[in-house]
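Module 6 notes. Inverse folding takes a fixed backbone as the condition and produces residue identities as the prediction. Think of it as a translation problem where the source language is geometry and the target language is the twenty amino acids. Below is one complete input and output pair. Work through it position by position during the lab.
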């Protein structure tokens, strides 16, 4: 067993390799896996997660663990956070006089682990499954909790699991996510997971799909999805979530599953490219733009960080605006949103997030633009449904948020 010469230093190569292993098994959990930074917690005797998505690892425990097993444990630990076990533990009074944090740990492990079985990703150190509690699969921690009260936990998963403070928690405070960012991350992962299942049905475990549907009950609730996508992009740019990954081409089956991390530029600017071509109605676009503007404000972006471009086959206007009413809807010819994206990324300072608002009647670039996150707001207007089958599929490298005109799900 290789042992670190200094017991307070983490083996960062092992951490990186384990994370890549985890991302290769669950690409749709990538945002969460990269948000979970790993800090040394000498002498803790465990590898645990706190409520700010920070992982605290005893270097000696990490040294004794294989790369793949730490990868499995990372998936397991972020699963506690995605499912918000700490908040749910509070609701179940786990920390109260009659509470039992160890039983909750066991119960929430059972909820997490049964979805990790199909890919062989249950971590050996925290391997409790519903069957050890004489319970059926697919239930929630709250159900398993009462059954778990007779036994001690096998592994301490930390405050991110049971909501009870640990002595090492403050060490990750600087890099930790606050509640709001954590909630946005959950929404973005849920949305990514649903897209992944839509692209390739059967790839996402049933328990994960149930979780995502609970979080995003309506597929037309585009405001929450768009807000989450923008927030995760901004958070990433601000350095709190330091990740980006590319997947190899689907066409070549022989390509090994290599995930390449890439570096992001720290400019949290957003450009909005508006499709003003003939197929769009200005009225609809204007209303959507007003809502997008309020979403951007809600995630903390000021007018000076948002630039709006009107675009059909060529970009007509590039303006910094503070209100949607200042947008000039020009154009009316053919459509090429690829040109709009190119022009947006030529702005200085270069925006790191481009939101494209379009009805989808446009060609798209085949390659993803470098160092930028593109979010396509696909506006599904009235009277166009008969043409929907003719809309070219938006590119797989863009995050697509379907904007439906139905108004009964208008939140906030
Ligand atoms: Zn656990």
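Target side of the pair, the amino acids:
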């Amino acid at each position: 067993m290789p042992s670190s010469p200094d017991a307070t230093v983490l083996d960062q190569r092992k951490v990186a390799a384990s994370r890549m292993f985890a991302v290769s098994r669950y690409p749709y959990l990538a945002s969460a896996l990269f948000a979970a930074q790993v800090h040394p917690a000498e002498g803790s005797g465990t590898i645990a997660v706190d409520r700010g998505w920070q992982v605290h690892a005893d270097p000696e425990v990490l040294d004794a663990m294989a790369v793949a097993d730490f990868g499995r444990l990372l998936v397991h630990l972020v699963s506690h956070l995605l499912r918000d076990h700490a908040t749910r533990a509070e609701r179940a009074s786990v920390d109260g006089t009659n509470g039992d944090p160890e039983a909750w740990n066991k119960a929430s492990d059972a909820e997490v682990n049964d979805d990790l079985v199909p890919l062989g990703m249950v971590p050996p150190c925290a391997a409790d499954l519903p069957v050890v509690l004489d319970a059926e699969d697919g239930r929630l921690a709250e159900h398993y909790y009462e059954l778990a009260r007779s036994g001690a936990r096998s592994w301490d998963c930390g405050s991110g699991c049971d909501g009870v403070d640990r002595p090492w928690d403050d060490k990750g405070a600087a890099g930790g996510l606050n509640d709001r960012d954590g909630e946005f991350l959950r929404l973005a992962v849920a949305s990514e997971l649903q897209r992944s299942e839509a692209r390739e049905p059967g790839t996402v475990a049933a328990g994960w799909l149930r979780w995502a549907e609970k979080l995003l009950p309506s597929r037309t609730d585009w405001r929450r999805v768009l807000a989450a996508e923008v927030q995760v992009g901004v958070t990433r740019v601000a350095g709190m979530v330091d990740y980006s990954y590319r997947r190899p081409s689907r066409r070549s089956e022989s390509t090994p599953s290599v995930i390449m991390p890439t570096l992001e530029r720290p400019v949290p600017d957003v450009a909005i490219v508006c499709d003003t071509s003939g197929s769009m109605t200005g009225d609809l676009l204007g209303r959507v733009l007003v809502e997008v503007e309020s979403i951007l404000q809600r995630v903390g972006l000021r007018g000076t960080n948002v630039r709006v471009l009107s675009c059909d086959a060529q970009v007509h206007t590039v303006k910094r605006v503070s209100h949607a009413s200042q947008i000039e809807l020009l154009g009316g010819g053919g459509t090429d949103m690829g040109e709009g994206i190119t022009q947006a990324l030529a702005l200085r300072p270069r925006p790191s997030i481009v939101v494209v608002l379009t009805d989808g009647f446009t060609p798209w670039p085949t390659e993803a633009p470098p160092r930028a996150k593109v979010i396509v707001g696909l506006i599904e207007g009235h009277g166009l449904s008969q043409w929907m089958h003719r809309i070219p599929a938006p590119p797989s490298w863009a995050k697509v948020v379907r904007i439906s005109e139905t108004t009964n799900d208008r939140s906030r």
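Reference fact for the lab report: The first strand starts at residue 38 and ends at 40.
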